[in-house]
Amino acid sequence: MRTLNIALAALLGLTALSALAQTPPPLDGPQEARVGHEPGVGQSLPLSDKAGNIAPGGAMPAVAPTLPSPAVGDSSFPGEYLRSARAALVGGHTGLAQQSLEMAETRALDRVVPPGETTAPSASPVVMRIEDALHALSKGDNAGAIVFIDRALAS
Prior knowledge:
Blueprint: H1 2-21, H2 78-90, H3 94-108, H4 125-138, H5 142-154
Helix pairs in contact: 2-3, 2-5, 3-4, 4-5
């Protein structure tokens, strides 16, 4: 009977060890991406509400953080995203402002171009002001970014 109890305890121990071996490793810190994450499925780590990885150069993390999504819908117009970006900057949420500006720029870039001219940059004043706002945001100039957002909204 004693041999049976020892064998049963050993079997349970091995089962517990194999279960522990299958769990994903813990994150080492807030800037490390989740191991085994499938892009486009669920929420990706790391999360941040601070603008970053906008302009090349400078100290940037190896993994760009996931920024919060604006409260406007996915099919909104550029002006709605610009108003969201402005409100976020006024509230000190630079990550939300960056995401809103990038989504506004994407919507503003919707245009018809002749074949062969698809690589030509947009000459739209709205797109240029959004780029200026992102550039100001990358320098930490929130007030300047708000000025460019206001100019884009007036265009």
